Amino acid sequence: MDTATLATDLLDLTLADALEALKAKKISATELTEAYITAMEGGRALNAYTTETPDKAREMAKASDARLAKGEAGLLEGIPLGIKELFCTEGVETNAGSKILKGFVPPYESTVTQNLWDAGAVMLGKLNMDEFAMGSSNETSAFGPVANPWRAQGSNGTFTPGGSSGGSASAVAGLMCLGATGSDTGGSIRQPAAFTGTVGIKPTYGRCSRFGMVAFASSLDQAGPITRTVKDSALMLQAMCGHDEKDSTSLTAEVPNFAASCGKSIKGMKIGIPKEYRMDGMPAEIETLWSQGIAWLKDAGAEIVDVSLPHTKYALPCYYIIAPAEASSNLARYDGMRFGYRAEGKTLAEVYQNTRSEGFGEEVKRRVMIGTYVLSAGYYDAYYLRALKVRRRIAQDFDEVFKSVDALLTPSTPSAAFQLGERSADPISMYLNDIFTVTGNLAGLPGISVPAGLDAQGLPLGLQVLGRALDEETVFAVGSALERAAGFAAKPEKWW
Amino acid sequence: MNTTAEKSNLITGNTGEWEVVIGLEVHAQVASNAKLFSGAPVGFGAGPNENVSFIDAGMPGMLPVINKFCVEQAVRTGLGLNAQIHTRSTFDRKNYFYPDLPQGYQISQFKNPIVGEGEIEVEREDGSSFKVGIERLHLEQDAGKSIHDMDPNATYVDLNRSGVALMEIVSRPDMRSALDAAAFVKKLRTIVRYLGTCDGDMEKGNMRADVNVSVRKPGGPLGTRCEIKNVNSMSYIVKAIEYEARRQIEILEDGGQIDQETRLFNVASGETRTMRSKEDAHDYRYFPDPDLLPLELEQAWIEEIRKTLPELPDAKKARLMADYGLSAYDAGVLVTKGARADYFEAAAKGRDAKLIANWTINDLLGRLAKEGHDIDDSPISAERLAGMVALIEDGTISSKIAKEVFEHLWASENTAAEIVEKHGLKQVTDTGAIEKAVDEVMAANPDKVEQAKAKPQLAGWFVGQVMKATGGKANPKAVNDIIQKKLGV
């Protein structure tokens, strides 16, 4: 076998396969890491990585090999990963996709990434994202949009990998890492996973610590992995999550063995199909995919139940009040006083205005203004308070249906990936991307997107499984049943 | 509650009498070694920005975690104010931009404070007292400090205070004079000091007050109020209120109206001036802090804290009056500081309590105050003061001699007995010696003897002469008896 073939073979291993091969000493962490460094460096056309840390990767891989030799392998020993730009990494720039944080090097490590390093994972670099995770196409990044490795058949057009974890999804789909961290506030893990033929899970709110994660909307933000398979996601999430006393909203619940749920029979499980998710004007392909998913689960022995989540139609407006409200406050610290971008001005007010006008992009400014508005005296009750009430109703809808079903099946997105630039002028059509995913954030529930097929243009489509709070096990079980049935084996043709 | 001021509190203007209505928001720094949400150390005198964690500096991704001890201190304070403790409270963000506010918001409790309604009894100088309702007490974090006078072109920011726990104690508008307002703050300070929940040091800014002042015709509807921000001494509170009340009365009597606004007290001029008008008031966009869960307290924990409460000033005062027979005034003075009462009780053990109280209050506290000290750094221990009072009680020294002994106690470390011995201050009760002295005085003043025989009230002159001759050491009663016997009056 020549080295080129070997490297390609290495890249073809899933995270689970690689773990086994490493443990069996068939491959070394160093070899694996070198293969990914080469892939990362060769994939710059995708603009997935904003910072590459090959030296750090080599050093970490070497340490992994030493631990593997001593039989002290951690949960993710020697696995090369990419890290979304909003996870603070000590000594490595963390810019959250924003000009205002360009060049910011945190002197501390986020809990999620620390957990990954403690499990033996190797850091390849930082991944591009929509600015402050506000966006569904990665086009709001101050560091340029990320390209989806997938292209429509017979087209040279560049498609979005989705957002905000666009860099993460692109890097995983483009075989430039074995897995990537993402964060999901309204669908920012699941939508990019669906657009790139990858798997992404947003766990229950509070499973992963938010400490050291640049905040967008604190009550909705949740970290999760994007990987190639459901089992890979289970393995990676296992290492990422767990109670953290540095985050007051972190859950104290035990973390079960997620990987053990993958492949488990779903016979006799009740799967709810929420009728409100059947939307007017939804493309026929999405309908077909959903029906196909229902059939797969039925074949696997699950019982399909029609359910209703009556407040679904309010979810998107509710989300676009709560998330910007929290963001307007969370982003107040970017004022040019202590770190990050600073513009000069004659007065204090001018320094603030110039810094924030120049440092933030248009979408971020739009949301800061919406958020400021809905929290203002005289508007608070009509918008923010009402949105909180609607949020409670949405959560109650889920509580109600989960009395009779074990999980819900929905499409992940209302369409396949679109071309860069296609929707960036129309924020509303962009916001509609989150229509099936925001409910999970508002209710704090776990949700996974699993690749389930291709659309007529040959672009991937995903199905979403939503579960009860803290019941990622069922989500993984149903997700892996879909994965098995779908047998999704398509790969993007390498053009970069 | 006293809704109308006593007559003496009314202010006379050109159109008649006015009543001033005062409510206070007192910011008391929680006595704690660590900040409210960051665990960073709290300390006066650290170098600039030395006590600052990444959380206090508002770094990206940093999250607040509540300091349980600060919560306990707030509960303890609430209990000390006879207030309702809320088993569920929440934290809100108060949003505004300022360089010494790193997060761009202050975490406070706007909607659901940890402590609700309470009431305290406040004593006036004249011994009368009045009640003040407590509306609420809530926990919040302090901002940093902007220093504008170190450089003509720059403002320096010190974040040491950023994130320090404060209790904001809000009173009902129950005060009707500047002195009452100061008395309320004094009482509050006494209570938090007893509880150990705030050191009450106004000079260091560890306790400061926002004062709400309005005026009205006695019994009339409440007037528009102005808030005077950040007043940091008792005398400034009095001056600020007096000035502000006069200002408002003048405006109203000239046919004007009061604009609701925030004002600042200028220490140098003794005046208040506009800081910002209602139109310019910040819209703080309060909303629940999504980084913090509601604070839920178990009733059992609250009860445990209640059990550890010290005896509070009102209870202590009542006990000193009952157990030691002290006057309300004396007991009141002694309980203004726990250490004073402790001193008194230590000294009074087995002694004449009234005498101990007099010496403690009049002589010791008076002298300490003159030298700018309090009981904590008294050069005379309770034991040494008690030793001196014992000598008065058994007649070894007179009260007059005791004044001299007291001076020696202050200046040396000797006991009263040693001082009396060393300086020969023992009272002379030996009648032979006294008789001899009386005889000598009478022999030298035969004319006075004749006069005194006719006019017995002149006998006092002989007492004075004998005391002088004996250097004040003669027992005055014995001297008096002998003189009267010799004069035959």
Protein topology:
The complex is a heterodimer of chains A (496) and B (489).
Chain A: H1 3-12, H2 15-23, H3 29-42, E1 49-52, H4 54-69, E2 80-84, H5 111-118, E3 122-127, H6 166-173, E4 179-184, H7 190-196, E5 199-202, E6 222-227, H8 230-240, E7 270-274, H9 284-299, E8 303-307, H10 315-330, H11 348-359, H12 362-375, H13 381-401, E9 407-411, H14 427-431, H15 438-443, E10 447-454, E11 460-467, H16 472-486
Parallel strand pairs in A: 2-3, 2-4, 7-8, 7-9
Antiparallel strand pairs in A: 1-3, 4-6, 5-6, 5-10, 9-11, 10-11
Helix pairs in contact in A: 1-3, 3-4, 6-7, 10-12, 10-13
Chain B: E1 11-13, E2 16-29, H1 68-80, E3 88-89, E4 92-95, E5 105-108, E6 118-123, E7 129-141, E8 145-151, E9 154-158, E10 165-171, H2 178-195, E11 207-216, E12 226-231, H3 234-253, E13 261-266, E14 271-277, E15 287-288, E16 295-296, H4 299-307, H5 313-324, H6 328-335, H7 338-348, H8 353-370, H9 382-393, H10 399-411, H11 416-423, H12 431-444, H13 446-454, H14 459-469, H15 476-487
Parallel strand pairs in B: 12-13
Antiparallel strand pairs in B: 1-2, 2-10, 2-11, 3-16, 4-5, 4-15, 6-7, 7-10, 8-9, 11-12, 13-14
